[in-house]
Amino acid sequence: MTNAVPLQLRSERLLLRAPSAALAPAVNGFQMRNLAHFAPWDPPYAADYFEPEGVSARLDKAEQDFAAGNAFGFWFSRLEKPAELIGKVNVTQVSRGPFQSASLGYAIDAQAQGQGLMHEALQTVIALMFAPPVRLHRLQAAVRPENRASLAVMKRLGFAHEGLSRRYLFIAGAWRDHETFALINPDWGLDEAP
After folding, report:
1. Residue 164 lies in a domain
2. Helix (H) or strand (E) segment spanning residue 151
3. Which domain holds residue 113?
4. Cβ neighbourhood burial of 154 (10 Å; 0-12, 13-18, 19+)
5. d(Cα 182, Cα 155) in Å, to the nearest integer?
C-alpha cells in the first residue's frame, strides 16, 4: 500500500518532499535559522538534535516510517528555491483498524509566515492523506491557545474544535495546555468498513 504514496508533491507555489538523508543540510539550515522562532512552541531538544549525525538519524527514521506507512512527513520549499526549506508537515501516529486516524503537526520559517504558504502545504498533504492509498478517516491537531496564527490555520482548513487538553506537552519549562482540533475525511462513507 504505502509504496504508492508519492515522495514528492507540488502545489501552486511549493515543492513538498518526503524525508531523505539528502535533505540533511537543508533541514539543519531550516532548524538553525528558526531556533528562536520555534523555541516557544517546541518541546525540549535532545542533546544531538542539531548535530549532523542527529539530523541524519532523524531523517533516516522518518524515511523508514514513511516507507512503512507509520508516518508521512514532508519538508517544503518554494518551487523557485528548492534548496531552501521553509517548512514541514508531519502526519504521525498513524493508526489503522477501526480508528484510521493520525496526528498532524507543522512548522514554517519565520520569514515565510503570513503568506498562506502553510495553508497551501497543509491542503496538499491533507488531500493526499484522505485519498487512496493512504485514505485516513481523521486527522487530529493540537495547538497552544496563544498561537493565534496556528489557530487561524485550523479554522481556515475547516478543522473542528474538540476541546482543551490541559497540561498536554512539556514546552519551554512548563506543561502547556493545547486546544485539540480534528478534520474528518468527507469522502469516507458511513457504510464503509476500514
Report:
1. yes
2. helix 148-157
3. 2-184
4. buried
5. 11
Residue 26: what are its φ and ψ, rounded to 5°?
A: -70, -40
Q: pLDDT tens digits, residue range 106-157?
A: 999 999 999 999 999 999 999 999 999 999 999 999 999 999 999 999 999 9
Rounded CA separation 180/26 (Å) = 31
- The CATH number of the domain holding residue 178 is 3.40.630.30
Closest CA to 42 of 99, 101, 90, 78: 90
Instruction: Look at residue 46 in the predicted model and tell me its pLDDT.
Output: 84
- How many separate domains does the chain show? 1
In a domain, 8, yes or no: yes
Q: Which of 107, 111, 37, 35 is nearest to 74 (CA)?
A: 107
Whether residue 2 is predicted with pLDDT greater than 60 in this model: the reply is no
* Cell triple for 50: 542539531
H-type alpha helices, 9-111: 24-33, 35-38, 52-68
Q: How many CB atoms lie within 10 A of CB 105?
A: 14
Q: Which three cell numbers stand for residue 194?
A: 476500514
